[in-house]
Amino acid sequence: MDIASELATELEWMAWTGPTAAFFAGIALILAGMTVWQTVSPTVERRGFLPMPTTRGDRLFIGLLGSAYIHLATVGFTDLNLWIAFGLSLLWMAVVMRFG
Amino acid sequence: MDNRPHDNKAWFLVLPVFLIVAISAIIPLMTVVNYSVQDILGPFQRVFVGTEWFEQVLNDERLHGAFLRQLVFSGCVLLIQIPLGIAIALTLPAKGWRSSLCLVLVALPLLIPWNVVGTIWQLYARPDIGMAGVAVNALGIPYNYTSNAFDAWLTVLIMDVWHWTPLVILLCFAGLRSIPEAFYQAAKIDGASAWAVFRHIQLPKMRRVLTIAILLRFMDSFMIYTEPFVLTGGGPGNATTFLSQFLAQIAVGQFDLGPAAAFSLIYFLVILLLSWVFYTYITHTDREDAR
Amino acid sequence: MNPTGVGFKKRHIGLIAYFVFLLLPIYWLLAMSVKPNQEILGGFSLFPQTITFANYVTILTDPSWYNGYLNSIQYVALNTVISLSVALPAAYAFSRYRFLGDKHMFFWLLTNRMAPPAVFLLPFFQLYSTFGLIDTHIAVALAHCLFNVPLAVWILEGFMSGVPREIDETAYIDGYGFPRFFLTIFLPLIRAGIGVTAFFCFMFSWVELLLARTLTSVDAKPIAATMTRTVSAAGMDWGLLAAAGVLTIVPGALVIWFVRNYIAKGFALGRV
């Protein structure tokens, strides 16, 4: 553990990169957007194709989690371009948000 | 059913919790995400590698093995500990000094630091100096957890049952005590059988604590590390290498920050999905019942 | 509740079997701790033949041993106080109001309990060294908040929801402000819940090793980390290890003794 801890102290704080910063900025924007949307027109729980009634926030969570898995599957088990996974995720998000 | 008033000022009450958890959860989580896409060569030397680590980790056969072992283990843990915990909680004396004494004894394993739990079972199960190890071998059953894979796996499982069933018992016991005496009297007047009392009074009242118990047991068994580390060190072979052991091997053993971070994220996502399904299912049936 | 004799006996046999299963390993630990090492390695004996307290004397007189206990107790106490004081108002908010994002917040808190501590090791080390907190008790206490605060909120919320809301409303009508109502009326009502929560906070902080060991080196080193020393010594000092193990159980046993009535008394729903 000692070598590890020595190295850890010398690593740059949080080791940011452009893509990850963009990713977190995106998440933050979505959350902010959802908050504004919620204050403007509060969500009503409803029942779509998902097996339980969901609010808008629930559907967002399901959409994001599903997208994460879509990306993982694409990266791990196919040779497809990551943008295809991204496109699929957008589609999935749209379907869940609208019909979920 | 839910007639709590809507008031966003309640956020001020939640704020301290939010801040403290945000600092100790969000910043590290972001750091892990950052590590997962880079090759950390040393201080101020890092290369962006995109999804390489994810690809590598997802196609790692050792990970598949560890994941399967983990699922089987966590499944066994829940199947044994939840029914056993409910049964013992129902049997414990409800009042008086006997009740207190039983509770104190039941809770003992929970307050033992996890590495000491490993040590206890090491001392207890060793075939040369341990009471259980010697006894089992004396019965004519060859048993040696350091060399036989199945014995090792079974020992870790029994150790976990010993260690964690008390948590289920305590939570169930607390839930049972919340049932007013009047309910039992009414059941008695109706001539309800013990099973009917359990099914229609005790079980529904315990649903909430059972939710907590199942979730806690599932999560904790899914990240079991210290006890098998002390007891078997993940061996023999890979028999008791669960996900956290595997992660620690990469992160601390080989100090591959990138793959370790990528693996952590996948690990986290799996736990997130499973717990969410669990949580949604249970709160949902909760509401159906309330209707 | 359980009137007939036959069922009574069967149940008790099961209970006794469980307690035997529960206590035998602990008995064995105790037996080991008072045996001299030659006896442990020399042959198998169910009861110790020669009883020695040399192992305990070593631990209680050597500062490098007993400081470990003091350190552990210190950060565990700190953690319990912090966890409870931030979790109480939050749990009240969750049990009494609906607000923007409440359900998601609740679940998010929970996800932090699920995160494997191994994942957070290196980032935590970086985080705390940035603030110069490495090897202090407060660092470990704060790190343990990651899993204890969510748990405290969750348990307390369960207890608070058991208190009827009419009590709050009556108090507000009687002219109580929130702080006064919360401290003088509400908290005493859920003191059983507070006891149980404190117990769980204590427990999870006391038993955690991975984070506690990584964030400390000398000044705040927990006892569980001190124990790993015996492993690296020439051969295994089983007796000393067992004695140290016994001593780690003692503070826990004392704590349960104090909260036993709270757990037993439980939610006290019937009386409110």
From TrEMBL, chain B:
Main location (coarse class): membrane
Pfam family of the protein (one): BPD_transp_1
Superkingdom, taxonomy of origin: Bacteria
Spans traversing the lipid bilayer: 12-33, 71-94, 101-124, 152-176, 209-226, 261-282
Entry membrane topology: Multi-pass membrane protein
Subcellular location: Cell membrane
Annotated SUPFAM superfamilies: MetI-like
Biological processes, Gene Ontology terms: transmembrane transport
UniProt KW keywords: Membrane, Transmembrane, Transmembrane helix, Transport
GO cellular component: plasma membrane
InterPro entries cross-referenced by the UniProt entry: MetI-like, MetI-like_sf, Sugar_ABC_transporter
Similarity-based family: Belongs to the binding-protein-dependent transport system permease family.
Name of this protein: ABC transporter permease
Organism whose genome encodes this protein: Skermanella stibiiresistens SB22
UniProtKB/TrEMBL annotation, chain C:
Pfam assignment, any one: BPD_transp_1
Single GO BP term: transmembrane transport
Membrane topology designation: Multi-pass membrane protein
Protein name: Sugar ABC transporter permease
Keyword Transport attached: yes
Cited InterPro entries: BP-dep_ABC_trans_perm (IPR050901), MetI-like (IPR000515), MetI-like_sf (IPR035906)
Source species: Skermanella stibiiresistens SB22
Family: Belongs to the binding-protein-dependent transport system permease family.
Organism classification: Bacteria, Pseudomonadati, Pseudomonadota, Alphaproteobacteria, Rhodospirillales
